[in-house]
Amino acid sequence: MKNLFNYITIILLSITSLSFNAQSQSAAVLSVYTQSAKISPEMAESVLRVEMTKTEQFNVIDKLDMIEILEENEIDVTNCYGKKCLLKVGKSAGVDKVITGSIENLGKKIVVTVKILDVESESYDKVAIEEFINLDSEIQSMVKIVVNKALGIENSQEILNTLVYFNQPPLTPKTYLKNNGPRMGLSYVIGNTAKILSATKADGGLGINSPVVMSQIGYQFEGSYLSAGDFQALLEGLIFITGVEKGLFSPSIALLNGFRSSKNGWEFGFGPTFRVSSTAEGYYKVDANGEYDVIDDWNYRADGNWQGTTPVFEYRTDFSGYSNPRIKTGWVWALGKTFHSGYLNIPVNLFYSSGSEGGYLGLSMGFNIAKKD
Fold first, then answer.
1. Does residue 307 contact residue 301 with C-beta atoms inside 8 Å?
2. Which residues have C-beta within 8 Å of that of residue 74, sequence separation ≥ 6?
3. pLDDT band, very low/low/confident/very high, at 279 (cuts 50, 70, 90)
4. From CA 87, how far away is CA 78, in angstroms rounded?
5. Domain segments of the chain: what residues?
């Protein structure tokens, strides 16, 4: 039992000694290189110094003390990024390690590097690098992740999933951009539909001032049936309600075949649309102005014949109290681009919906959170 106790004591003393030696090593943080990132080299150096100090694995020299050392030794660290210069500073400061790094903005990602230079051996004994999504507001968290990686400290998986830029696996090089989400926009009504909407209520219209512009609000569903590299073929479903602010309730559904580039966000789509419209049925004639007019009862004589020219029986769009809802079909062409802000997608689309009595030319936009399958 005594031998076992002595053995455990020796192990504990060894661990304590190793821990003390690790923490007793001194370090100087110096010259963090930045490129296209929204952080200055001085600020990046301060962030690295703070995160390295928080690990409690080195006695990190304070910034003001470091300035005094550099002034006393007349060392200019304006472009001190190479090993030779870093070693000169480390030996002048009398530290065991010199810690440096870089923060580079490379388009869609930010690359952070942390290097620990051993002054005695004059070689880098620890180098860590990580790629992150392009979020400049999270640079300090990125530096913390890379510092932990260099020192063998476990990072939170939740933070890694949020910030780390994961490359596509080489065996499944497919990129998916999903734009399911709400849509809102404006549509400019053209053709006979616009004439009816701008007509007086006595003539079956709503009396809307020209040009007829109405709001649209709805939701888009989509699914990818083909994906290769940065190309996607999509089946899109859009549900819209038009003209709520004009006192209308005009729902429509569009089914589009779409094509999108996940690399630059451009997309193109086309397909049928089905709209519920108020439609009146009856006999119509052409009036003196060349416009259709509803035939009143007095035009029909008791003997069963029409007064004047025999009118044509038709179904026509009408918003009077005598109209009934009917399904009308049309065709939609759409062109758009998806803009990105971190995980947020902002799709913007220009569309034209044509029908037998006119059409809608409009602009819609939406938002959703980016997803990769």
1. yes
2. none
3. low
4. 15
5. 23-163, 181-369
- CB 211, CB 358: distance < 8 Å: no
Q: Is 2.40.160 the CATH classification of the domain at 181-369? A: yes
What is d(CA 369, CA 24) in angstroms, rounded to the nearest whole number?
A: 46
Angle at 189 between CA 186 and CA 195, to 5 degrees: 145
Look at residues 33, 31, 29, 28 and name the one whose alpha carbon lies nearest to residue 111.
33
Of 238, 187, 183, 185, give the one whose Cα is nearest residue 362. Answer: 187
3-state secondary structure of 242: strand
Alpha helices in the chain (DSSP H): 2-24, 41-54, 63-72, 83-93, 139-151, 157-163, 192-198
Task: Give 52-93 pLDDT, tens digit per residue.
Answer: 999 999 999 999 999 999 999 888 888 899 999 999 999 999
**Beta carbons of 221 and 236 less than 8 angstroms apart:** yes
Beta strands in 150-308 (DSSP E): 181-191, 213-228, 231-242, 250-261, 266-286, 292-294
Contact between 130 and 96 (Cβ < 8 Å): no
Domain 23-163 of CATH type 3.40.50.2000: no
| Contact of 57 with 7, CB cutoff 8 Å | no
What pLDDT, in 10s, does the model give residues 169-219? 444 444 456 778 899 999 998 887 787 777 776 565 667 777 889 899 999
The pTM (predicted TM-score) of the whole model is: 0.45
